Amino acid sequence: VTLDTETTGFRQTDEILQIGLVDQDGHKLVDTLVKPQHTNKWPHAEKIHNISPKMVEKNGISYSDSLEAVRKAIASFDNIIIYNAGFDCKFFPTDFFKGKNVFCAMQLAIPILRAFPEYEPPSRFLKLKVLASLFELNTHDIDLHSAAGDAELTRRVWQFILDNENRLEVPLRDIIGEWFFYQNAGISCPT
């Protein structure tokens, strides 16, 4: 499954406003607004994802209910793919993903980019939409900057990685194994 969040901002004290979870076939498993516990406005973030305090107040569920929805949805899955996992994971309890393999699609896309000579090597951080553009993925049917939309786009990026692993000099399995070793994924979400 792929997971994405929209938040009140980028600071450690910011909170989740929306969670999206999509399975490997593109079916939405979770697509919900979340009421923040401590924040009542987020003007800078609202300009990006268009989630207003009024929307969240009217249609949001509690943070604990959102965690329960995600917990139920991921129960039968071993692998969770998140774009920029280090960011999204900080909004979940420390052991929330315990027993799951958490992959960062952004970090694991870099070896794929290196295998395509027409792509410029990325910096340490690469926006999801930019990566999708480099991979020439269709985004016209996706609500970008919504959690479910970005989870779907992450699913497409991940599928592109899997479909193109034959272009890698080192097998993807080895790259993932090394990444697990360094990130300690599978035990807790990488930070």
Could you explain the architecture of this structure?
The protein has helices at residues 43-49, 53-59, 63-74, 85-89, 105-115, 128-134, 147-163, 172-183, and strands at 2-7, 16-22, 28-33, 79-82, 101-104. α5 (105-115) runs parallel beside α7 (147-163) and α6 runs parallel beside α7. A five-stranded mixed sheet has the order 3-2-1-4-5, with helices on both faces. By secondary structure, the protein is α/β, with parallel strands linked by helices. It is built from eight helices and five strands, in the order βββαααβαβαααα. The radius of gyration is 16 Å and the shape is globular. Mean pLDDT is 87; it is low at 185-191. A hairpin with an 8-residue loop joins β1 and β2 (16-22). 31% of the residues are buried.
The outline comes out as globular
Q: List the strand order in the largest sheet.
A: 3-2-1-4-5
Helical/strand content category: alpha/beta
Number of helices: 8
> What proportion of the residues is helical, as a percent range?
40-55%
Strand content: 5-15%
Radius of gyration, taken over Cα atoms and rounded to an integer in Å:
16 Å
Poorly predicted residue ranges: 185-191
* Series of H and E elements: EEEHHHEHEHHHH
Assembly type: single chain
Question: What order do the helices and strands come in, and which of them pair?
Answer:
Layout: E1 2-7, E2 16-22, E3 28-33, H1 43-49, H2 53-59, H3 63-74, E4 79-82, H4 85-89, E5 101-104, H5 105-115, H6 128-134, H7 147-163, H8 172-183
Parallel strand pairs: 1-4, 4-5
Antiparallel strand pairs: 1-2, 2-3
Helix pairs in contact: 5-7, 6-7
